[in-house]
Write a structure and sequence with these properties.
heterodimer; A: about 625 residues; mainly alpha; two-stranded antiparallel ribbon; B: about 425 residues; 14 helices; 15 strands
C-alpha cells in the first residue's frame, strides 16, 4: 500500500508524457522539471500567499491568503501557461528536428527551470503540506496512511477520463490521428499545431496536478522532481506511448516494487535496499529495450536529420600545439582564482571533447558523462590512496576503469537511440551515483583523498606551499588536453572516425555498406568514456579530494548542454565549451566583474535552448561566421 | 555593401541573446549590491582600512543543504558590530562572501579567493567541499571557524575551529533518550550515505550501548533523504515498538519523517537534529512534529527570553536583520551567535595583532572562554573527543516542542563528547 503513492505519480507522469508525445512527437525529457515549477508555485502560495512567476521580477501577494484550492488552481494555470509557452517557443519549431536537438532543448529547459527555481524559491528541498486528507486506516493490524489510496483513486479517474476523451470525442480521435500523420489531419481541416498545443497543456496540467499531490510524500526539490521523468518514462515505454491502461498499471507496479524493495535486506553492504530501488527502473528500461528495440512508435511524418557539421577545421597537430602553448602561457600569466579557473576550463574542455567523439562524431547522446568521469576519479582515489600506485600508473588504471564502464554502457545501449538512449544513459548515471558514488562518498570519518601527482621528483600538484594555485599544474593539464585534442582530430580523420560518421548519418545505410553499427557505437562509448575518465582523473588531482556532488547527474546534464552550446561537432567547439563551463574562465570573469555567478546556470540553460532552436552548430560556428564576415569586409 | 541575411542574423542571435541576458541580469545585480552597500555605509561609524573576514556558504545550489539563515544571522551581527560596537578596534569589519555550490571545485575556488584577498579569518557556513578548501586555507595559515561541521575536514583539520558540535549532537540525543526518557529500545533512522551511516554507527549506537541498551534493541534503518516516500522507512524503524526514535535527517527529510510519524500513529518519543526545529520544517511536519525533541548548541530564543544574550540577539536581529528573518531559526541564531563569539575573541587581541597567525593562536589558547548564547568553548587541543582537534564545543541543550512552543527539556547543557567518551 505504501508504494502506491509514488506509483500513482509515476503512472500519471507516464500518462502526461504519452499525451505530450501524442501532441508533438517529442518525448519531453523536461517533463519532471515542468511539473516541478507549478509545484513550487503551489507551495509558495500555501506557505506565504505569494505568487512567483518566471521572468516577472518580485513576488505578488494575491490577497487570497493561503487557500489550498485557490493555490491549486493558480498552480495548474501556471502549468498550462508553462506548457503552452514551451510548446510554442521550443517544441513546435523542433517537431522535425533530429532527436539530438530535442534532447538538448529538453536538457536546456530542465537546466533553466532548475536555475529559476533555485533563484526564485531557494534551492533547499521542501516538504509541502498535504492537499489530501491526512487520515489513517488499519489493515492487518497496521496503521496506514489513506492519502495513497486517494491518489490511486484520482489516477484511475484521470485515466478513465483520458480514455473517454481520446476514444469518444472528436478532439481525441483527431489527436490520435495526428500521431499517425499530421498532413492527413491538416488536409481534413484541423490545425496540427493547435492539437499539439492542447495535448501539451493537458499533459502538463496532469503532470503538475500529480506533482503537487506527490510533494508532501516525496518532498520537493529541483533535482528530485526533474529525475521523476525516468520512472515515468519506463511506465510510458511499457505502454508503448499508446496504451493508457498499461502505462498506469506499469507506474503503479513500479511504485509498489520499489516500496517492497525497501524492506528487503540483502547480505551485501554495498547493495542496500535504497540502491536496489534506484536500480529497478533501470532494469525495467533495459528489459523493455531488449524486448522491443524501438519502443517509441515512429511518427507518421519524417524528420529532417540535420545534425551539427563534424568537418575537420584545422590540422590536428597545429591545433594541439596552439592549445598547449595558449594553455601553458595562460597558466603562467594568470594568478589566483583565474589560474584555478583555467584548470577547470581545460578539464571542462576535455569533458566536452568526450561528447564531441560520442555525439558529434557518432550521433549518440549521453547524459552520463560525469558518471564516467566519477568512476575514474573515485578509482584514482582508491588506488593511489590505499594501494599507493605511483603516478601515472594509478591515473592510467583509473582511465581504463572509466573506459570499461563506457564499453559496458555502450553494449547495453546498442539497441537504443535518440530520446530512449538519452533516458537510458540518464538511468545509468543514477545507478552509478547510487552504486558507486554514494557508497564511496565522504563520511564523518573518511574522505576520498587524491594525493598530488609527481613524476621523477617533478611536483605536478595544483597547490603551492603558501596555498596559491601552481602554474605547473596548468601546464600539465594543457599537455593532456592538447594530446586529447590531437587524438580526437586524428580519430575524426581515421577509418574508425569515418565509420562513426556513417553511423551518425544513417545507421541502415552504414550497415548496408558493411559497417558493424553496434561495434562502432560500443567503440565510441569506450573512447568517449576514456576522455571523460581522463577529465575525472584531472579533476581529482585538481581538488585533492573527491565528493559525489562533483559527479552528480545534474552536472552531466549541464556538461551536455554546455558542450552543445560551444559546438558539439568538432574539437574547437569543445574548447569554446570549456571556456563556458561552470567555474571556468568566463564564469569566473563574469562573477568577479559583474557579480553574475548566481546566474551562470540560468544563462547557460537559456543559451542552450536558443542554440538548439536557431543554430545547432553552437557558438563556435557563430564566432567563425562573424570572423569571416569581418575578414571579407 | 552586402546586407545581413536572415540566416546570418539567426546564427548570431545565440551569442547576442546570451550576452544581452548576461548584461541585463548583471545590471540588476550590480544595482542591488550598490544599494546594500550605501545602506551599510550610512550606518557605519568605524573608519580606516576595513578588517576583511571571509565567509564561505552554500546557497542557491540545486542540491539542498544550503543555509542562507547562517549568513542572514551573521550579517545582522556584523551590521550590529559596525553600527553600535565601533567595529574592530575602530576599523569597520567586512565580509568577503563566497558562495559555493556543493562541489569541491567551487570550494577550492573560494579558498583561492580568500588567500588572494588576504582575509583575517574565514567563517564557514555550510561547505560540502571543505576537503578541498581547508588544505588551501591551512597552507596559507588562515584560520577557519566553522558554524556547521559536517565533514572530516571540518572536524579534524589543524587550524580549523568549530564552536558547534555539528553531527556530534546526535550523541547527546542518544544519551538524553536513555538517561532522561528511559528508553530501552531505540531505533535510529539515518541517511543512506557514508556520512549518515557513520553518524549512526559512530556517534549514536556506542552511546546507547554504553548506557546499557542491549545491542539487539538498537535498530538502525537507512533511507535516502530524497526517497520517494519516507513512510516505509518509518514503518520499518517502528516495527518492533521502540521507546525512542532518533532521526538523523536534516530538513525537509525530517519534516517528511514527522508526517509519516503522524500518519502511522507512532507512539515512541522522537528526537531530531537542531535544524529540524525551524518554523518551516515544523510547519511542514504537521502534527507529527508536536512532542518532538530537538538539540541546539545555542540557547533557543523561544525558550530563554530572559537571558541577556538572547534578548540582545532578538533586539539586534529585529533591528539589523531582514524583515522576514525568523529569530527562532537555528541557523540564524547560530550565525549570529558564532559571529558575536568570534568578534569578541578578535576584540580581545591587540590592534597590532590582527593577523591570521595571531587569530589562530588566540583560538588555540582558548580554554573555557564564554560563548555568545552558548556553552563556553575550549580549543587548546585537549577537547572532549580525541582526534576531533577542531571541535571546541560539544555541548547542546535539548528542547521539546510543546503546543507549538519550545521548552527546555534538558534543563542544562549536555556534553556529547562526554557521552561518547565517558
Amino acid at each position: 500500500v505504501l508504494g502506491l503513492g509514488p506509483g500513482a505519480v509515476y503512472g500519471a507522469l507516464g500518462l502526461g508524457l504519452m499525451l505530450t508525445y501524442r501532441g508533438s512527437g517529442v518525448v519531453n525529457l523536461a517533463f519532471g522539471a515542468m511539473a516541478m515549477y507549478p509545484t513550487y508555485v503551489y507551495d509558495e502560495l500555501r506557505t506565504s500567499g505569494q505568487l512567483v512567476l518566471p521572468g516577472v521580477p518580485g513576488t505578488h501577494r494575491l490577497g487570497v491568503g493561503t487557500d489550498a484550492v485557490l493555490a491549486l488552481l493558480i498552480a495548474l494555470a501556471v502549468a498550462a501557461v508553462l506548457s503552452l509557452t514551451t510548446y510554442a517557443v521550443v517544441v513546435r519549431p523542433l517537431r522535425r528536428a533530429p532527436p539530438l536537438a530535442t534532447v538538448v532543448a529538453a536538457v536546456g529547459i530542465t537546466v533553466v527551470l532548475q536555475a529559476v527555481v533555485a533563484l526564485r524559491f531557494g534551492a533547499d528541498p521542501r516538504a509541502p503540506t498535504s492537499l489530501l486528507p491526512q487520515s489513517s486506516f488499519s489493515l492487518a493490524g497496521r496503521t496506514l496512511p489513506s492519502d495513497r489510496l486517494y491518489l490511486v483513486a484520482l489516477l484511475l479517474v484521470v485515466c478513465g477520463a483520458g480514455t473517454v476523451l481520446y476514444r469518444r470525442t472528436r478532439f481525441g480521435l483527431v489527436s490520435r490521428g495526428a500521431t499517425e500523420g499530421e498532413t492527413a489531419v491538416e488536409l481534413l481541416g484541423y490545425s496540427a499545431v493547435r492539437l499539439g498545443a492542447a495535448n501539451w497543456v493537458i499533459g502538463g496540467v496532469i503532470g503538475a496536478l500529480f506533482g503537487i499531490l506527490l510533494a508532501p510524500i516525496a518532498g520537493l526539490s529541483p533535482g528530485g522532481y526533474s529525475l521523476l521523468v525516468v520512472p515515468a518514462l519506463v511506465a510510458a515505454l511499457a505502454g508503448r506511448f499508446v496504451s493508457t491502461a498499461v502505462t498506469v498499471a506499469a507506474g503503479l507496479t513500479l511504485g509498489v516494487v520499489q516500496s517492497v524493495a525497501t524492506r528487503v535486506e540483502l547480505p551485501w553492504d554495498w547493495l542496500g535496499p535504497q540502491t536496489v530501488r534506484t536500480v529497478i527502473p533501470f532494469v525495467g528500461l533495459v528489459a523493455v529495450l531488449l524486448v522491443r528495440g524501438t519502443p517509441v512508435p515512429p511518427r507518421g511524418d519524417g524528420r529532417s536529420a540535420r545534425l551539427p557539421a563534424a568537418h575537420p577545421q584545422l590540422h590536428p597537430w597545429r591545433l594541439a600545439a596552439a592549445v598547449f602553448l595558449t594553455g601553458s602561457l595562460a597558466a603562467v600569466l594568470l594568478a589566483g582564482e583565474y589560474r584555478s579557473a583555467l584548470a577547470v576550463t581545460m578539464i571542462g574542455a576535455l569533458l566536452c571533447l568526450s561528447l564531441v567523439v560520442l555525439t558529434g562524431f557518432t550521433g549518440q547522446v549521453s547524459l552520463a558523462q560525469m558518471s564516467f568521469a566519477g568512476v575514474a576519479g573515485f578509482t584514482l582515489s582508491r588506488v593511489t590512496d590505499t594501494t599507493a600506485l605511483p603516478f601515472p600508473v594509478g591515473a592510467l588504471f583509473a582511465v581504463a576503469a572509466a573506459s570499461v564502464c563506457g564499453l559496458v554502457v555502450g553494449l547495453l545501449a546498442v539497441r537504443a537511440r535518440g530520446m530512449t538512449l538519452a533516458v537510458m544513459t540518464l538511468a545509468v548515471a543514477l545507478v552509478v551515483q547510487e552504486l558507486v558514488f554514494r557508497n564511496l562518498s565522504n563520511g564523518i570519518l573518511s574522505t576520498n583523498v587524491v594525493p598530488a601527482p609527481s613524476l621523477a621528483g617533478l611536483h605536478l600538484g595544483p597547490t603551492a606551499a603558501d596555498g596559491t594555485p601552481r602554474a605547473a599544474f596548468g601546464v600539465f593539464v594543457a599537455l593532456v588536453l592538447s594530446a586529447a585534442v590531437a587524438a580526437a582530430m586524428h580519430l575524426r580523420r581515421s577509418s574508425v572516425g569515418r565509420r562513426m560518421l556513417a553511423v551518425r548519418a544513417n545507421e541502415r545505410a552504414a550497415a548496408a555498406t558493411g559497417i558493424h553499427v553496434g561495434r562502432t557505437k560500443v567503440v565510441a562509448f569506450g573512447l568517449s568514456a576514456l576522455l571523460a575518465g581522463l577529465a575525472g582523473t584531472l579533476l581529482g588531482y585538481q581538488q585533492g579530494a573527491l565528493s559525489e556532488q562533483s559527479f552528480a547527474v545534474e552536472r552531466s546534464l549541464l556538461v551536455l548542454a554546455v558542450a552543445y552550446l560551444g559546438g558539439i561537432g568538432n574539437a574547437v567547439g569543445a574548447l569554446v565549451a570549456g571556456l563556458l563551463i561552470p567555474g571556468g574562465l568566463v564564469a569566473t570573469l563574469l562573477s568577479q566583474t559583474l557579480n553574475l555567478g548566481r546566474y551562470e546556470t540560468l544563462a547557460a540553460g537559456v543559451a542552450v535552448v536558443f542554440v538548439a532552436l536557431r543554430n545547432p552548430e553552437g557558438v563556435v560556428s557563430t564566432v567563425h561566421r562573424l570572423w569571416l564576415l569581418v575578414v571579407r569586409r | 555593401m552586402r546586407g545581413w541575411s536572415r540566416r546570418a542574423i539567426g546564427r548570431w542571435l545565440p551569442l547576442t541573446g546570451a550576452l544581452a541576458l548576461a548584461f541585463a541580469v548583471g545590471a540588476c545585480t550590480a544595482d542591488n549590491d550598490d544599494g546594500q552597500r550605501d545602506a551599510a555605509s550610512r550606518r557605519a561609524k568605524p573608519s580606516g582600512e576595513p578588517v576583511v573576514v571571509g565567509f564561505i556558504n552554500l546557497e542557491g545550489a540545486a542540491l539542498g543543504s544550503s543555509s542562507p539563515g547562517l549568513r542572514a544571522g551573521s550579517e545582522a551581527a556584523l551590521e550590529y558590530v559596525n553600527a553600535e560596537l565601533g567595529g574592530l578596534h575602530g576599523r569597520p569589519v567586512e565580509f568577503e562572501v563566497c558562495v559555493v555550490n556543493g562541489t569541491l571545485e567551487s570550494s577550492a575556488a573560494c579558498a583561492n579567493r580568500m588567500v588572494e584577498r588576504r582575509v583575517l579569518a574565514v567563517l564557514g557556513g555550510v561547505d560540502l567541499g571543505s576537503a578541498a578548501s581547508l588544505p588551501i586555507l591551512r597552507a596559507a595559515g588562515i584560520p577557519y571557524i566553522s558554524m556547521t561541521p559536517l565533514l572530516p575536514a571540518d572536524l579534524t583539520t589543524d587550524g580549523a575551529f568549530t564552536l558547534d558540535p555539528g553531527g556530534l549532537g546526535t550523541a547527546a540525543n542518544a544519551a538524553f533518550a536513555v538517561d532522561r526518557l528511559g528508553a530501552q529500545r531505540v531505533a535510529v533512522l539515518h541517511d543512506d550515505s557514508a556520512q549518515g551511516k557513520q553518524l549512526a554507527e559512530v556517534f549514536v549506537r556506542p552511546v546507547l550501548l554504553k548506557r546499557g541498551v542491549a545491542a539487539d534493541r538498537v535498530r538502525l534503518v537507512a533511507e535516502k533523504q530524497d526517497a520517494p516516500d519516507m513512510t516505509p522507512a518509518v514503518a520499518a524503524a517502528t516495527q518492533s515498538g521502540p521507546d525512542a526514535v532518533i532521526v538523523v535527517f536534516p530538513p525537509p527529510a525530517c519534516s517528511r519523517v514527522m508526517q509519516a510519524v503522524a500518519a502511522l500513529g507512532v507512539k515512541a518519543q522522537v528526537l531530531f537534529i537542531g535544524r529540524c526545529s525551524d518554523k518551516r520544517a515544523v510547519a511542514a511536519g504537521g502534527p507529527g512534529a508536536e512532542g518532538g525533541y530537538f538539540f541546539s548548541s545555542v540557547l533557543h530564543a523561544d525558550a530563554h527570553p530572559d537571558d541577556p544574550d538572547v534578548a540582545l540577539y532578538r533586539a539586534k536581529l529585529r533591528q539589523f536583520g531582514d524583515a522576514d528573518v525568523d529569530p527562532n531559526s537555528y541557523d540564524t541564531a547560530r550565525g549570529f551567535a558564532t559571529t558575536m563569539t568570534v568578534y569578541r575573541r578578535l576584540a580581545s587581541l591587540a590592534p597590532t595583532d590582527l593577523t591570521p597567525a595571531a587569530v589562530t593562536a588566540a583560538f588555540r589558547s582558548a580554554v573555557a572562554v564564554p560563548a555568545f548564547m552558548g556553552h563556553p568553548y575550549t580549543c587548546d587541543g585537549r577537547q572532549a573527543v580525541p582526534g576531533f582537534v577542531s571541535v571546541c564545543n560539544t555541548h547542546v541543550r535539548i528542547y521539546k516542542l510543546d503546543k507549538g512552543r519550545y521548552r527546555d527539556a534538558s534543563g542544562d547543557w549536555i556534553s556529547a563528547g562526554a557521552a561518547l567518551t565517558g
